[in-house]
Design goal:
This protein is an alpha+beta fold and 439 residues long. Helices cover 35% and strands 16% of the residues. It has helices at residues 5-19, 46-52, 81-87, 92-98, 111-114, 116-119, 133-146, 150-153, 164-172, 176-199, 206-219, 282-300, 310-325, 333-338, 434-437; strands spanning 23-27, 33-35, 38-39, 60-63, 72-76, 104-107, 125-126, 160-161, 224-225, 230-233, 254-259, 261-263, 266-267, 270-275, 379-382, 385-388, 408-411, 414-419, 422-425. Bound molecules: glycine and manganese (II) ion (MN) (2 copies).
């Protein structure tokens, strides 16, 4: 399973059709330092990987469709047996052409010398500024140099455009090959959640549940976690990005688990919340059923042609109705929504695009008024929640929250593919109905 060479080639052709008479430059992700001279496992920049499939640092990919000889050029680390003994095998310059389909490849040390020829006749440069100060400066300096003769001959890149204008729309719609990888990431993530609920019981530690989850990921061939696993018992669930995972599960607690794996660079992202002892308290059950209803209704909004925000607006509407019924909010529904008075309970959005990045790229809105319309091949999460922190501060004019509700945090999150006639829940394997998760 994986992306075929021919698909990478199609992506590059699609990109180059947009680049036209320009030149696009993509820089690999840097190695990230864990501490001193110990580094994290290398993760390529997602755009770079999407276009090349090349998984090494210190690399630059150049697309110059107008160039007479070379349209796709890779700059890479050259073979170096001594260095490779320490840090692993490198593809090298020759194989960059054979294996990765570049028309030409050079050692990265030759970038300054070789890059200008691919930019000299470009009418613009596509480059994403802002992520690597040193590299930005190299590109900006080169740009200035290339524009020096513009007055004399009218040739030179007259603008820098952000590469996001090229890749966002491409990456947003997933190909059949990508969907297959996403299904696998979702399936393994689902297995891990099922295992976690079997394992969780009063007395075990959050990190032990985390270990079961991540064991499941690796055992099934996933690269690892898509993001640090959130295993949050009791009131810890009210901290959205709780990752300490060091508390003991207590009888009567809910356990919120937000965990997903990365498989072949594509990500799963699932949240489930369940009672540690298999029995909801009445307050837990009431709020759980409300979040579940919000999630089911929001998922029903995922279909081609619907605006991206329909799921969120539906979730908010259901949650506010429920909180009004419970007396946890009071007043006029429309006003509560307009003035966001529900936010002490529900402070995040109902989802995000999902793909090579967990919070994947792609426009949510085309302009002030127009939301992205969903279309087949989009993949998004649907993840409403309710969080009643022990420290919750109700919005102005809203009632104080009785103690019996405090310390309950619930989120339910699935990964949903937009299909021709509706949607497909990729993470449906993990139970979420009350009957399935409690007795
Ligand atoms: N786990 C990150 C998110 O749900 O967005
Ligand atoms: Mn998510
Ligand atoms: Mn999540």
């Amino acid at each position: 399973m994986g992306i075929e060479k021919s698909e990478y080639q199609q992506r590059r052709e699609q990109l180059m059709a947009k680049v036209g008479n320009g030149t696009a430059i993509f820089h690999s992700a840097p190695m990230a330092v864990m501490h001193n001279d110990v580094e994290y496992v290398y993760r390529q920049d997602s755009d770079f990987y999407y276009l090349t499939g090349f998984n090494e640092p210190e690399a630059v990919a150049v697309f110059a469709p107008h160039h007479e000889e070379h349209r796709y050029i890779l700059f890479v680390q050259p073979k170096d047996p001594e260095k490779e003994t320490w840090t692993g095998y490198r593809c090298g310059v020759e194989a960059a052409k054979e294996k990765y389909g570049a028309d030409e490849a050079y050692p990265i040390a030759e970038l300054a010398e070789k890059l200008p020829q691919y930019l000299a006749k470009a009418d613009r440069i596509y480059y994403r500024l802002g992520r690597d100060e040193k590299f930005n400066n190299r590109i900006l300096t080169l740009w200035q140099r290339l524009m020096a003769g513009y007055q004399k001959n009218g040739i030179g890149p007259t603008a820098i455009a952000d590469t996001r204008t090229l890749t966002f729309a491409m990456r947003l719609v997933k190909s059949p090959g990508e969907i297959e990888l996403m299904r696998q990431a979702a399936k393994i993530s689902a297995q891990a959640h099922i295992r976690a609920r079997e394992y969780a019981r009063p007395g075990v530690y959050e990190y032990q549940v985390e270990a079961e989850i991540e064991h499941t990921f690796r055992l099934a061939g996933a690269m690892g976690v898509a993001y640090p696993s959130i295993v949050a018992s009791g009131a810890n669930a009210c901290v959205l990005h709780y990752i300490e995972n060091n508390c003991q599960l207590k009888d009567g607690d809910l356990l919120l688990i937000d965990a997903g794996c990365s498989y072949g660079y594509y990500n799963g992202d699932i949240t489930r919340t369940f009672p540690v002892n298999g029995k909801f308290t009445p307050e837990q059950k009431t709020l759980y059923e409300l979040v579940l209803e919000a999630q089911l209704q929001a998922i029903a909004q995922v279909k081609p042609g619907n605006p991206y925000n329909a799921a969120h607006d539906t979730a908010v509407s259901v949650l506010v109705d429920g909180l009004l019924d419970l007396g946890l909010l009071i007043g006029d529904k429309e006003e509560i929504i307009k003035e966001e008075k529900y936010k002490p309970f529900y402070m995040h959005k109902t989802g995000h695009w999902l793909g090579l990045d967990v919070h994947d790229v792609g426009l949510y809105k085309h302009n002030e008024e127009t939301w992205q319309a969903l279309q087949p091949g989009h993949i998004l999460t649907v993840e409403p929640g309710i969080y009643i922190s022990p420290y919750i501060k109700p919005a102005e004019g809203q009632p104080e929250i009785p103690d019996c509700w405090k310390g309950i945090g619930i989120r339910i999150e699935d990964d949903v593919l937009v299909t021709d006639d509706g949607h497909d829940i990729l993470t449906a394997d993990v139970p979420k109905s009350v009957a399935e998760i409690a007795h």
